[in-house]
Each structure stands twice: as structure tokens, then as C-alpha cells.
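pinned: reference chain
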Amino acid sequence: MPKKLVFALLVALVSLYGLAIPGAMAEVKVGDTLGNLQFSKPLTPEDQKYLGLAQDAAFTLKEVNAPYVLLEAFGTSCSHCLAQAPKMNNLYNLIAQNPKLANKVKFIAVGGGDNQFGVTMWRKQLKIPFPVLPDQDTSLTKKLNIPGTPTSMLLDKSGKVLWVHIGAFDSAETAFSEIKAVIK
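pinned: its C-alpha cells
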């Protein structure tokens, strides 16, 4: 095959690949609607009670007994997620202690690619006070359209993204202020 033809084919393939990447790599953003997300069943009766679920089974976003869900996508092998965990615990405490927000926001962490054993150990080791659920087949984390972990997002009952932070945030206080600003 002539070198010019090989070069032209290579340029065409690279161009097509470049066009495909932006759609595949699109980040979740404020205003996106993710729909009625499906979660695996809570791991403990306490988690079921915290989320206000009637049954100990897989559940959807609409079944959570709160107008908002703060969803944290993480991975147990992610060093940034490990650094973020104490900040998420602090954010959880800031919201739980705020009389205007305490009953409006429920937290759920989802371990993309992680099994039940992995997320249970993660939760115990890092003393996570809110539900941590496995997403071993990554079906949920793929639907979230996240570029990496950790990714934190505030969703309303329709699955609309009201706030999102990709990567570990610097302070729980800043995240708290940003979240407070979007909750009605």
C-alpha cells in the first residue's frame, strides 16, 4: 500500500476517533437529568431506615424519603476517594446538624466496580455514617456519566443534577455552602 494512502487512512481514523471521544467522555453537569436511578439493596437495616425504604430490596431514587440525594461515586482502590472520605463524613455532619437541611438530604455512596465485601470494609475502616452500596457491574456508575472518582452530585427526585463536583473537594464547608445555595 502506498505511504500516502496509509497516511491518509491513519489521519482519517485519528479524526474519527477524536470526534467520538467528546461524546464518550462527556461529564455529568448541572442540569443533566439522570432519571430514576436504580440502587442495590441497602446493606443494613439502619441504612434502610435512614433512606425511609419500605422494603429490604433494590430501590430507586424516587423511593428515598427525601427531596434530595447527595450521591457519591467512588472506588475502594481510588486514592483520591480515600482522601475525600473524611471530607464527605464532615459534609454529612454539617448537613445533618442543619435544621433546614437535615431531613431534606440523604447521602448514598456507590462503589463502582466494588462488591459488597469491599464497600463494607471501606465503610468500617473510614467510619462512613451513611449508606455505602456496591455497584460491582458498574451499571449505575456508567449511567452517571462520570469521568472518574470521586464524583459527588446533588440530585432531586427526578434525577436532575443540581450540584456536581468532580474529584475530591478541598473542604466540606465550601461544598456545604454550594449545596445550601441550590436547595429550596
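why pinned: Residues 5-24 have pLDDT under 50 and may be disordered. The chain has one domain: 28-182.
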